[in-house]
Structures are given as structure tokens and as C-alpha cells.
Amino acid sequence: MKKILVLMLVLGLATAANATMSLTIQDVPSSMEVDDSAVIAINDSVGYISGDDLYFVLVADTGLATISGGSVMTGTQDTAILGTATGIGYDGTLGDGIGGYVGSTGGTAFGPGDYIYDIDLAADAQGTVTVYLLTTVDFASWTTADSAEVTITPEPITLALLGLGGLFIRRK
Predict the structure, then answer these.
(1) Residue ranges of the chain with per-residue pLDDT less than 70
(2) Which residues pair with 116 in a beta bridge?
(3) Distance separating the N- and C-terminal Cα atoms of the chain
(4) 126-141 pLDDT, tens per residue?
(5) Angle at 123 (CA atoms; ends 122, 124), nearest 5 degrees
(6) Going by CATH, does the domain composed of 20-171 fall within 2.60.40.680?
(7) In the chain, what are the domain boundaries?
């Protein structure tokens, strides 16, 4: 019985050691109006285990939206927002946004949660934009961890003014 318990403990520790973070984008609306903003977050449902260190960027693929700001969850050790995505070494292929680091130089594990929160997603112009969360460990290759699509529509007042303008043109 002791051997089975020891085997289960060893297998459980090996499984935990092989677990990696599962970063996702949270709270991204499916649609927004021009000049609106939404507060989004980067979440990890698994938790940080020593050695899972990685860099991330959160970017919008067109000039239709801007990503900025953000705060770091307390207790996530060395996790930080380091600046703009292109400023930390991302080549800007999909646009710019924020970039940072998730990890602990001391190797201290921390649990799941919103590691980066209060990120501002601002709708600048009408169209469809994809928000990408990319990760890397070497800055040579970036992996898409998650993405979300947002449709940006004109403000209701803009549509109303366009409609009224059409009526005036028709009257003449």
C-alpha cells in the first residue's frame, strides 16, 4: 500500500511539474461602438509553476483599436508590463499594444487568476479587429495563445446624422 501511495505522489508531482500556464484573454466584448473602451484582462487558469516564465504581447491587428494600460496581480512575483509590444522585441507584424513578462526569478509558484488586468481596449474606428495574445520564451518565435474578434460599429448619433443628411438630400 505504501508503494502505491509513493507512486501516486511521484506521478502527481511529475504531472504538476509538466503543467504549463494557459493564458487567455478575458472580458473582450464581441462588439463596441467607435470611441468606446472596454477593460480586458490576461488570465491563467492553471497557475504559474517554476520554469513557466514567458514574455507576452497583447496586440490589435489593425489600426482600428488601441491597447494600453494594465495592472499586475499582487503576488505574481516578477510579472510586469514592460511597455509597448514593439518596445519589448515584438516585430509588430500584427500591430502594437502592450508587452510584458509572466514569471518569477525566484521560482516561487503562484495560482491561477487575472495576471494582468485593467487593460484598456479602445475602439478608434469602424470595422472588425482581432485582439491577439502572443507568447515567447526566446523572442525568435511567437505563439498565439488566444485571440478574440471585436466588431466596431459607428456611434448611434453618427448613424442618425447620416440618416438626417440623406433625408435633406432627398427633399431637394
Answers:
(1) 1-20, 157-168, 170-172
(2) 42, 72
(3) 93
(4) 999 999 999 999 999 9
(5) 105
(6) yes
(7) 20-171
CA distance 166 to 172: 10
* Residues in CB range of 137: below 8 A, 6 or more apart: 53, 54, 55
98 to each of 90, 122, 132, how far by Cα in Å?
Answer: 10, 13, 11
b/e string for 63-75 if b means 16 or more Cβ within 10 A?
ebbbbebbebbee
Contacts of 111 (CB under 8 A, 6+ apart): 47, 48
Going 140 to 144 to 147 to 152, the CA torsion angle's sign is: positive
Helix (H) or strand (E) holding 17: helix 2-18
The C-alpha angle with vertex 59 and arms to 76 and 57, in degrees rounded to 5, equals: 35
- pTM for the model: 0.79
